[in-house]
Here is the input.
Amino acid sequence: MNLFVIGVGASGGQALGLVDAGIAALGEPDPVRVVGRSRRYQNPAWGGATRAPFVNAAVVVDTTLPASSLLALLFAIEGAQGRVRSARKNQARTLDLDLLWQVAPAGPSSSSSPLLPHPRLLERSFALVPAVEALRSAGLAVPLELAAAARRHALAPLFALPLHAG
Here is the structure.
């Protein structure tokens, strides 16, 4: 059993639907099970860019996969949603899945493992606040460093409207 926190984000007119599709796709592969989920949050684009706001959420997953294999799966899900990775940072994206935190490391990591926790997690409220909420939703203890950083950040929750009226 490996527990990971995954950040889910998107921007543009379809951002809310893309975040929901990303979360649904995470629950589809057999070795991955979503065990906790945050609300969705809307926030301005990162880096002062003048583009559509982002929608962000986080999930906790339980998997038999090591971090490097889970990261490869996240990239495949992004690609299926039209994400093309480039060297440019902080650009608009269809779907962004980030490995943020490993809750219970299974053992020593290899040199090919992703850097965990995510190197900028504690600076980014759009990732931190949903991550803490997802951990609580999964019934897991929130590490002190995450809880302390989350108290310094705040975002207004974004709630989706029903897809169909009546």
Q: What stands out?
A: The first strand starts at residue 2 and ends at 11. The longest helix spans residues 67-80. Strands lie at 2-11, 32-37, 40-43, 54-63, 96-102, 157-158.
